[in-house]
Design brief:
This protein is an alpha+beta fold. It has one domain: (Glycosyl)asparaginase (Glutamine Phosphoribosylpyrophosphate, subunit 1, domain 1), CATH 3.60.20.30. It contains 9 helices and 15 strands. Helix 2 packs antiparallel against helix 3, helix 3 runs antiparallel to helix 4 and helix 8 packs across helix 9.
Length: about 350
């Protein structure tokens, strides 16, 4: 039996129905008859998308021809953008001569190598690890977090425990070269992060596959001689990396604290959503930092690609470069910068 209050409520709603007008339209998404009209443009980005006009591509921060080649090899075989970016950034993670990523990365001020990484796929899924020790490939652990847990981020001892349970091998990450540099630093123990202008640090990578899907990855050992427990922007979804398959993707490099304060990569993608080109979006995101911070001795760079395969890059200081691979060609170019 319907009580009086519910009866009056239902009656009021029924009285409103004649005043609402509906038009039957055919959905532009499903092709089925829909009792509600679809506003112009709504859902247009949900239509199946093909590759960009230029075909599949890989783009990364800094001079990374070997990393790009590994990613491109995946795409050439018809692989996914997700597989491509993971394969790509695993290259510097395993390179002891790259002292800002993975094996051989510079330690924190206590002599421990701690690694951060994140990954995003075309569906908006994401995985991240922070403050991870003893594992050479944090990017693969981040992917496992994304695919095998209900979580987005695992940190520290918990991330290590998970990695070992997944079969990752526990290894020593501190190389003799990195240890020697750290011991030399201990003589003064002055922690003054300076602009990383002429050498590589974080690697961020974006890829578009033959289906037009976009994925991204970001991995780093963080600032050299950082405070124990410090985590930068690289593993933070929306800061070091963000992907929206309807719009594009972006990643960041440089002083992570400044990127986190502006949600930098998310900002770049949202600016592209509003109509900016990838180049314009990267420039505007960098200017947000310049307008609020003393930027003489800091470096931040942004890299972006949109759904059409157009790319852009911009940094505060000169010296930031990017590596683009497409149409069987790889090219390293210098990004534009605020300071000349």
């Amino acid at each position: 039996m319907v009580n009086r209050r519910r009866f009056l409520t239902l009656g009021s709603l029924a009285g409103l129905l004649p005043s609402l007008s509906f038009s039957r339209t055919r959905s532009t998404i499903t092709g089925n008859s829909d009792p509600l009209s679809v506003p112009q443009g709504l859902g247009q980005n949900l239509l199946p998308a093909g590759p960009p006009p230029s075909g599949p591509l890989v783009i990364s921060t800094w001079k990374q021809p070997k990393a790009n080649a590994a990613a491109q090899a995946v795409l050439d075989k018809g692989g996914s953008a997700l597989d491509a970016v993971e394969a790509g950034v695993r290259i510097p993670e395993a390179d002891p001569d790259d002292m800002s990523v993975g094996y051989g990365g510079r330690p924190d001020r206590d002599g421990h190598v701690t690694l951060d990484a994140c990954i995003m796929d075309e569906k908006g899924n994401a995985g991240s690890v922070t403050f991870l020790e003893h594992i050479m490939h944090p990017i693969s652990v981040a992917r496992a977090v994304m695919e095998k847990t209900p979580h987005v981020m695992l940190s520290g001892e918990g991330a290590l425990q998970f990695a070992l349970a997944q079969g990752f091998k526990k290894e020593k990450m501190l190389t003799a070269k990195a240890e020697k540099e750290w011991k030399e630093w201990l003589k003064t123990a002055q922690y003054k992060p300076i602009a990383n202008i002429e050498r590589h640090d974080t690697i961020g990578m974006l890829a578009i596959d033959a289906k037009g899907n976009i994925s991204g990855a970001c991995t780093t050992s963080g600032l050299a001689y950082k405070m124990r427990g410090r985590v930068g922007d690289s593993p933070i979804i929306g800061a070091g990396l963000f992907v929206d398959n309807e719009i594009g993707g972006a990643c960041a490099t440089g002083l992570g604290e400044l990127v986190m304060r502006t949600c930098g990569s998310f900002l770049v993608v949202e600016l592209m959503r509003q109509g900016r080109t990838p180049q314009q979006a990267c420039e505007e995101a960098a200017l947000r930092i310049v307008n609020k911070q003393e930027f003489k001795d800091i470096q931040v760079g942004f890299l972006a690609v949109n759904k059409q395969g157009e790319h852009g890059a911009f940094s505060i200081q000169p010296g930031f470069n990017i590596t683009l691979s497409k149409n069987n060609r790889t090219e390293v170019t210098d990004a534009k910068s605020y300071l000349k």
